[in-house]
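Researcher: We're teaching a course module on how sequence relates to structure. For the next exercise, students receive a sequence and then see the predicted structure as tokens, so they can try to spot secondary structure elements on their own. Here is the exercise chain.
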Amino acid sequence: MPEASKHTAIKHNKLEINQDIFDLVVDEIIPQTGINPDDFWNSFEQILDDFMPRNKALLETRDTMQAQIDDWHKSHGEPHDPAEYENFLRDINYLSDPVDDFTISTENVDPEISRIAGPQLVVPINNARFSLNATNARWGSLFDAYYGTDVIPETEGLEIGKAFNPRRGKKVIELATDFLDKVIPLTEGSHKDVSAYTLLGDQHSQRNLQIYLQNGHIAELKHPEKFIGYQDEGSTCSLLFKNNDLHLEIQIDPLSPIGKTTLAGLKDIILEAAITTIQDCEDSVTAVDAEDKALVYRNWLGLMKGDLEVVVKKGDKQITRSLNPDRHYKTPNGDTLSLSARSLLMVRNVGHLMTSDAILYNDEAIPEGIMDGMITSLAFLHDYHGNGHFKNSATNSLYIVKPKMHGPDEVRFSVDLFARIEEALKLPGNTLKIGIMDEERRTSVNLRACINEARERLIFINTGFLDRTGDEIHTSMEAGTFLNKDQIKKEPWIEAYEDRNVDVGLQCGLPGKAQIGKGMWAMPDLMADMLQQKIQHPLAGANCAWVPSPTAATLHATHYHQVYVPHIQQELARRPMASLQKLLTIPLALNNELQDVQDCLDNNTQSILGYVVRWIDQGIGCSKVPDTHHVNLMEDRATLRISSQLLANWLYHDVISEEQLLDSFRKMAKIVDKQNDRDPFYQPMAPDYNGIAFQAAVDLVTKGRQQPNGYTEPLLHAYRQKQKQNTH
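Model: And here is the predicted structure for the students to work with:
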């Protein structure tokens, strides 16, 4: 057995494992998995033997290509010849060789990924309460989503108060019945005209749904097959329907506050909402040392075993939150029907860049992505063997989302790593599935080749404007001055990026096997705007799109009830492939058309400070950060990357001076301090401006050009570690 070292670590051959990680793996994760601890560490060591050199070589390739691109822009100037630029990228293998036609062959994929289109949550796994809330967001109250958000504006008489507001409740009923008319329409009249939903027959025979209207007529569903189940408990009743592969439940309770306001006694409409959730070890998480990583892995273990719990204080009471049990119904013919009450979970491991000293190999910190792969997969064995209270994957698959991969060689690295992990954990081949984040430029332009490398494991591709733009800026830093963020969104490459992702996914046979996803709605308090705009994602052919909260998932689910994505994908498959040349068009300000430089500078420094101060001082990796107009924005490292890279570009090309930059940081620090003045844990940055968080924010811009691929993690981790050392 391994021996303890004097540095609260465990020595095992070439490995030195932090005590927290070692104890978690050996004492908590491994029992009941059938894995021998010595065998696990031996396999881990062998994988590091083989994959650490490959990991380093891939990062060196990134640096080499970046230097070549920098030199090309310096020697060619702007505007450049698009054909010459494309040929150059092919010469250096930035653009890989075309691959023959193929379709992915992924097997054993849960229907939540392969068939059902719907909202997707991304949640920081180091926050157990958030993780549980997201997992339990598989079903959500449409009444609550309407009542508690700006979907219904708080005009006179419609305010949200402590007591139930009947006028606001009436407005909820209007919106909800309009929704029902769209997705389960009646043969006559409207759901707002219903006086009673009645089940004929008894529970031992065929039950038929009869719908009485206020005019005395009896209506039926236009599509009676959509009624698939019920729960009947005296005066209360729940009716279950299925539309576009999604479930919705009409709850009837004439004695409930809102039920009293309708003849039909409508208590609520419950929608199947967050179909899938990515439990995130990466962008939304602060995990900079072994202590942090142990928390990440322990929470994931709790989800895989189904026993994760958290105690929440509500006033004088303490409430224990845990995973929701399955939902049970009777079918109209008397059979039983059970539906999962939990979102299907995926786990996002970190990318290839960062290392962790939680485990040392020959006294060297190991790639954090390899550690994530080994330990999250080990915890998955509890789900695989059915050890837990609940089953996550009915097909015994683990869905690992891999971020920030640059091109097909890096995808191949992950695929090979997954195969070795399967071997170490005695899993069948292709048990570990892969989701490819299409958020780096070299992946976007080679997406088809990337998918080809993962064709037996692929279950997910998506787009993400923020990281993708951050990499766009860093890759072409030497090309010239970039437009501001609002202008960049209107440039040709964005449309090509979004369309081409879908086009390639359809061409490679993802429908029926894998998700095509779209990015986050970043304004969690502006739900009326989201409800109006985010329907564009299913209309664009996306099986899923990211939302910032369970409430947002419920509202976004209404879009998938109205848009049947497989039909949209069939139509889109007929259009021409989006242009590679447009995708390679760099969004530069070639004719001095930059707009609102000072305002943009202030907006970005304020955004950077608002996020970084919580990250460094409090270890909060994802939060609502008010902008300069006091609109809350959902921020994580992706938003930080684009802001810091844009300002680094402007600083490098003399759009702004370092003095202007520092003046803006100081000015915005006062605003951020004021925005956080009710937070008892907040440490103000003004008037000294010499705190660790403030310095980290400044460095992200002034040192941004030197950061690998423009990533924020190296600086954030260094400063967070420094802050933790100071507070300890």
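Model: If you want an answer key for the exercise: Confidence is low (pLDDT under 50) at residues 1-6. DSSP finds 25 helices and 27 strands in the chain.
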